Amino acid sequence: MTIAKCPLCGEKVKVGIKPWIGQEVDCPACDATLEVVSLRPLSLDWPYDDEGYYETGYDEELELEEDEF
Ligand SMILES: [Zn+2]
To answer: Which partner from 22, 37, 48, 65 sits 20 to 30 angstroms from 55, CA to CA?
Structure first.
């Protein structure tokens, strides 16, 4: 199980075994709807954050690690 940190409250959020960019997850602590914005390192952000933040040039050769921690 991969764990990411909620940017809002800092709680650990489970994102499944193989997270992907754009995956939506819910924080169990603050009930925020978050989106996976980066896999290495795994990070979450709000899906409705400023749109200019996202870059479309992600490498296709992302290596997924099942146990980031
Ligand atoms: Zn949270």
So the answer is: 65
**Whole-model pTM?**
0.65
Residue 22 is predicted with a pLDDT of: 93
Residue 51 has pLDDT above 90, yes or no: no
What's the gap in Å between 12 CA and the centre of ligand 1? 8
- As a whole number of angstroms, the distance between CA 56 and CA 34 comes to 19
Structure tokens of 26?
């819910």
**Cα 8 to ligand 1 centroid, rounded to whole Å:** 5
Compute the distance from residue 58 Cα to the ligand 1 centre, in Å: 26
- Side chain identity, residue 40: R
